[in-house]
Design goal:
By secondary structure, this protein is α/β, with parallel strands linked by helices. Helices cover 43% and strands 10% of the residues. It has one domain: Rossmann fold (3-Layer(aba) Sandwich), CATH 3.40.50.
Length: 324
Amino acid sequence: MGLTTEQLKDAYGRMCLARAFERKCEELFMQGQVRGSLHMSIGQEASAAGTALALRDSDLLITNYRGHGHALAKGISPRAAMAEMLGRVTGCCKGKGGSMHWTDMSKGILPANAIVAGGLPTVVGAALAGKLDGLDRVAVVFFGDGAANQGATHEAMNLAAIWKVPAIFICENNLYSEMTPIGKTTTNKDLAERAAAYRMPATIVDANDVEAMHAAVSEAVTRARRGEGPTFIEAKTYRLVGHMIGDSQIYRSKDEVEEWRAQRDPIRLAGDKLIARGVTRAELDAISAGADATVADAAAFASASAFPDVSEIFVDVFEHNALN
């Protein structure tokens, strides 16, 4: 089932927002305003947008250290997100989480996890909680091809299958586990093959095609809401930037990257679809300009916000049990 033209324009806008946001983060990082590391998902925006359009606000999402696009597509405030990047008190985690730990419970975005595969056990618990409470809710987790080799991944998938929880496992296979080509870490042609070990339905999707991604996630959501349990989605994609800022990318050729950029850039592909439906280039430019304006506003807001006071250093670190 394809997206309507209005839905596809919505998806295009979400992808443009994610890319503009990360480009601004890159700029601010080079200026020394973003501390720590920065892992961008440029080239993977369709995976995020297609997924988010298939979810409700009440559905839960868990992302990882390359999760800015996921959270923005799900509806996190760009202002709160940028303020978090700059460590400001107005950030979504009060400036204490930074790039890798965004959360917004009002949008169903559970705390992101910087540990490889750390979100998978959590998504099983979140999905189980919804099932036990009788909620019509699904829980989605994003993870990379490197995380597919972690023991926590298989423990989580096994439990999800046994308990038939409404969880969706989305493996964004961008061909490189940090700097290691996938052929050096696994013998599987397709990582989706592994779901068969748990008798879990699996599908492989071109995750640079936002409509294909939306269709795959929508089908998994429908299964989950019917009480038929989890689904594994292998979202085949490609990041057009390094693993993190400063990555020399000696593990792949510039020609390979440029070929993907020229032929499989998800934003360009979605734009081509819209033009084929009669949307003008001027309309697309306006959507892109709107995303740029939103990001500029977010950056100005974040820069004008205060840093957390030192007295806040231990606030929100521990939860005290009031029961005697």
